[in-house]
Write a structure and sequence with these properties.
The complex is a heterodimer of chains A (about 300) and B (about 280). Chain A is an all-alpha fold. Chain A has 13 helices and no strands. Chain B has about 280 residues and is mainly alpha-helical. Chain B folds into two domains: about 55 residues, no CATH class; about 170 residues, Orthogonal Bundle (MetI-like fold). Chain B is globular. Classes of the chains: A mainly alpha (about 300), B mainly alpha (about 280). Chains A and B meet through helix 1, helix 4, helix 5, helix 6 and helix 7 of A and helix 1, helix 4, helix 5, helix 6 and helix 7 of B.
């Protein structure tokens, strides 16, 4: 039998539960919505208005539809930036990921000694501030930098135009990206290799499989999900690249090393601000990254939940 | 039967090759940094005479000058302030929300939690302009609070995800028995949940600390006042107007690089663990 006292206790307990829930989640939810959700949605709205600075809230904004999206797609600099984003993805997919995997594999199979030392060294560039790296390599590849001096030792008449020639300027940027993030992929592969049951590998060895066969038939299949994840990471990493290029070239010469984020920055903060266009770019990037999220979730369902 | 292992000539060559590859990678990592540090000990004239060699003699004068011009005492103070405050706030708010998501039943959990997980993957760069406009509109441009709020906000998705997943693994019985003893949720959070979150707190602290310490994009657009800038923004000054003063530029870059290198060498294990934990989902 429930007494009146008991039922009061239960309702207050239910009420308390609800109160506790919202008090606990509220700080995180409010901050997250204010910082990420609201600006994202607001940006879609702004991209379709004529807002060009001044008072943001409470002023009358004219709705102009998709005009700024058309402006964006007609802008050659948009395509230039998108192309460079694509180059960065290529460097990841054909550079960082295979090299990172190969290094991780050698460390995992203990084919060399000094594993912890080598791992530390390859990952090290990831820990340094990207701005420091950008400015450092700007000097390193400049006509007065170490790169020029080293090449002059080989060919005394060498003229370094890497950072000045619009057709070449993306090369040093891509080299630095390769330099910085290969270790990141190595760490991801290494962590996932270490989850493979060693006894399975030993069993295939006992059965007479050589190193290649072990890799081909045991290890690669076990890592298929991770390989897909890293490919997605490469694409989102390309969309995220900003700091390095900003510090190293600021998108120059002639805006030839620009990427989408730099292109957006230029439209919003360099020269006369074109906020609607910048917001259109922002929305374009959000859509791209939401597409990636959907792809990842589909792939995760397909490959089964790793962790 | 396992074959007896014999080191053949081709194995030997393979070993040499693999060691060679790793030593090349080590060299490629170290050489630009080594060049940078060595050049920072040359006067600008000495650097222009010899751009590759070791400094002879070592010149230490670039450091005090760069420190003074770059106002590094302010930059370090600000960077520490932003990094420590953000890390503590992210830890607290993430575990609070994680506790509620993992242990208190509510219909809201499904979509709220999912929206945080989406935030892990969302490209932050894409909201730089709207975030600037909103910060400006609410009068927080050029204030410390206007920097801290976005910093905490961008740290939360990963924090809430790691916190919730970890707190789920705490046995329900522990929390239920405390409830029966009459403990409030606040008390359970403080005296049962928080002490148990230590391993994930370390991972999350390291991810947030390194992320915020190196953060540049947001603070670059949210702050123009010298007194509230952080290290990465301050260092960039040496690439613009001061770019030809090589000695000071290299000294400034070295000053900016060393704290994180030391941090990495101390917390190497935890950092690599944290990175792979964060990457599996992100």
């Amino acid at each position: 039998m429930l007494t009146l006292e008991d039922s009061v206790k239960i309702t207050t307990s239910k009420g308390e539960e609800r109160w506790a829930y919202w008090l606990l989640v509220l700080p995180a939810v409010l901050l997250y919505f204010a910082v990420i959700t609201f600006p994202t949605i607001f940006s879609i709205y702004l991209s379709m208005t004529n807002f060009s600075g001044g008072q943001l809230f409470g002023s009358e904004l004219t709705f102009v539809g998709v005009r700024h999206y058309i402006e964006m797609f007609k802008d050659p600099y948009f395509w230039l930036a998108l192309k460079n984003n694509f180059y960065i993805i290529l460097v990841s997919v054909f550079g960082q990921i295979p090299i990172g995997f190969a290094l991780a594999y050698v460390l995992f199979r203990k084919l060399v000694g000094l594993q912890s030392f080598f791992q530390t060294m390859v990952y090290l560039p990831n820990t340094i501030s990207t701005i420091v790296i950008g400015v450092m390599f700007q000097s390193f590849f400049s006509p007065y930098g170490a790169y020029t001096e080293l090449l002059k030792k080989i060919n005394p008449t060498y003229e370094n135009t890497l950072m000045l020639d619009p057709n070449l300027a993306m090369i040093p940027v891509l080299i630095v990206i390769l330099w910085m993030y290969t270790g990141y992929y190595m760490i991801i592969f290494l962590a996932n290799l270490q989850k493979i049951d060693i006894s399975v590998i030993e069993a295939t060895k006992i059965d007479g499989a050589n190193e290649w066969q072990t890799l081909r038939y045991v290890i690669l299949p076990a890592l298929s999900g991770v390989i897909v994840t890293t490919a997605i990471l490469a694409i989102s990493g390309s969309l995220k690249s900003f700091d390095l290029i900003f510090a190293m070239t600021a998108g120059n010469p002639a805006r030839r090393t620009s990427v989408l984020s730099i292109y957006m920055f230029d439209n919003a903060f360099r020269g006369a601000p074109n906020y609607p266009l910048a917001n259109a770019i922002s929305t374009f990037m959000v859509v791209l990254s939401l597409l990636l999220i959907i792809i990842i979730q589909k792939l995760e369902q397909r490959f089964g939940g790793r962790e | 039967m396992k074959k007896p292992y014999r080191l053949g000539f081709s194995d030997f060559l393979g070993k040499i090759l693999l060691y060679g590859v790793f030593w090349i990678f080590t060299f490629l990592t170290i050489y630009p940094l080594f060049w940078l540090v060595m050049s920072s000990f040359k006067t600008t004239q000495a650097f222009q005479m010899d751009r590759l060699g070791l400094p002879n003699p070592f010149f230490f004068g670039n450091y005090p000058m760069a420190w003074k011009i770059g106002k590094f005492d302010i930059l370090f103070g600000n960077s520490l302030f932003y990094t420590i405050t953000t890390t503590l706030a992210v830890l607290l708010f993430s575990f609070m929300a994680g506790f509620a998501f993992a242990k208190i039943k509510s219909k809201a959990t499904g979509w709220l939690y999912k929206s945080f997980v989406i935030g892990i993957l969302l490209t932050l760069q894409s909201i730089m302009v709207p975030l600037f406009l909103v910060t400006n509109a609410v009068g927080l441009y050029n204030t410390r609070l206007g920097i801290l709020i976005p910093y905490i906000g961008i740290g939360l998705p990963m924090g809430v995800y790691l916190g919730t997943e970890f707190i789920k693994s705490i046995p329900d019985a522990l929390i239920e028995s405390a409830r029966i003893d009459g403990a409030s949720y606040g008390r359970i959070f403080a005296s049962i949940v928080v002490p148990m979150t230590k391993p994930v707190a370390i991972t999350l602290s390291i991810l947030t600390f390194t992320g915020i310490w190196n953060e540049f994009m947001l603070i670059n657009i949210l702050a123009s006042k010298e007194t509230i800038k952080s290290l990465p923004v301050g260092i960039l000054k040496f690439s613009g107007a001061l770019a030809t003063d090589y000695g000071k530029q290299f000294a400034a870059l070295t000053i900016g690089m060393v704290p994180m290198l030391v941090f990495y060498l101390i917390f190497r294990k935890q950092i690599t663990q944290g990175v792979s934990a964060g990457a599996v989902k992100g």
